[in-house]
Amino acid sequence: MKIKIVENKEKPFLYRKEMxxxxxxxxxxxxxxxxxxxxxxxxxxxKEMVIIDKIDPNYGIRVANVVAHVYNDKKKWIxxxxxx
Length: 84
Hints:
Blueprint: E1 2-11, E2 16-24, H1 32-43, E3 50-57, E4 63-71, H2 74-82
Antiparallel strand pairs: 1-2, 2-4, 3-4
C-alpha cells in the first residue's frame, strides 16, 4: 500500500490541518482505523487527533482519494466537538 500526500493545508481558525491523500491498495479499500494510524504517523500526531472525513475509491483502479483532518490541540478539538 502506498500513501501519497497530495495537499496539506493549515486551517488556523479551526486548529487543524486538512490533508488530501491518494492511497493505492492491493485488495480492498483500507478501513478508517487503518488510515487514521498511517495519517497520524505521517503528520507526527496522535491517532486520537486524526479524523478521516472522506474515503472516495475510484472505480476500476485500486486508488482512493482520502480527506483527513489532523487537529493541533486536544483541548480545542474537544471544544469544537462539543459545539457541533
